[in-house]
Design a protein that fits this description.
Blueprint: E1 2-6, H1 12-23, H2 41-53, E2 58-64, E3 70-80, E4 85-92, H3 102-117, E5 122-128, H4 132-140, E6 144-155, E7 158-168, H5 169-175, H6 177-183
Parallel strand pairs: 4-5
Antiparallel strand pairs: 1-2, 2-3, 3-4, 5-7, 6-7
Length: 191
């Protein structure tokens, strides 16, 4: 359903308008930390450049394989080479792609990439407890509940608990790697 294309610094000017549209959409970011403050395209480009320059983040543009339309971005952040861990994050900015299994597939792709290509041992993520759709997508992708941080996120004039989930390499290879390696051979595309 999707392909993941690496976000490159040279593409930021072109992509930043689209990403700014997503991060400034109150419906898209309703439960997210992203969207706390409005951002113009220059600020979006600067934030992405900073994340890419850090050298410990891998960020992809999510492209619908049927329409070739960018629908969001996702990545593995704060990759720690000694502990071999990273945080998975995603944002689907095009609302017509919500509730159709894209979130699960994107998390599965990032997980495959993190274990198969980056040799990670642990991938973790978080979401606002009231965002039930995200929780279901992450669970379907094999992630296990680890706990909740009480009143961790402030949005929409209230505090939300943050749920933390993770998947370990040994569990992934036991349960999911074989099927994912067959499914995801061709999804990490160059532009």
């Amino acid at each position: 359903m999707v392909n993941l294309c690496p976000v490159e610094i040279k593409d930021l000017q072109k992509l930043s308008r689209l990403i700014a549209k997503w991060v400034n959409d109150g419906i898209v970011t309703y439960y997210l930390f992203t969207g706390q403050r409005p951002q113009n395209s220059e600020q979006v480009a600067a934030d992405f450049k900073k994340q890419l320059d850090a050298g410990n983040n891998v960020i992809f543009l999510i492209v619908d394989s049927k329409t070739k339309k960018p629908i969001g971005y996702a990545g593995l952040y704060e990759i720690h080479s000694t502990a071999r861990k990273a945080e998975s994050r995603l944002l689907i900015g095009e609302k017509q792609f919500w509730g159709k299994g894209y979130g699960t597939e994107i998390v599965e792709l990032l997980t495959f990439y993190g274990f198969d290509r980056l040799n990670l041992n642990r991938i973790y993520l978080g979401y606002t407890a009231e965002n039930k759709g995200s929780g279901k997508a992450y669970e379907r992708a094999g992630y296990i509940y680890e706990g909740a941080l009480k009143e961790d996120i402030y949005r929409n004039s209230k505090y939300y608990d943050s749920v933390r989930m993770a998947i370990l390499r040994r569990d992934y290879y036991k349960k999911l790697y074989k099927s994912h390696s067959e499914r995801f051979k061709q999804v990490f595309l160059k532009k």
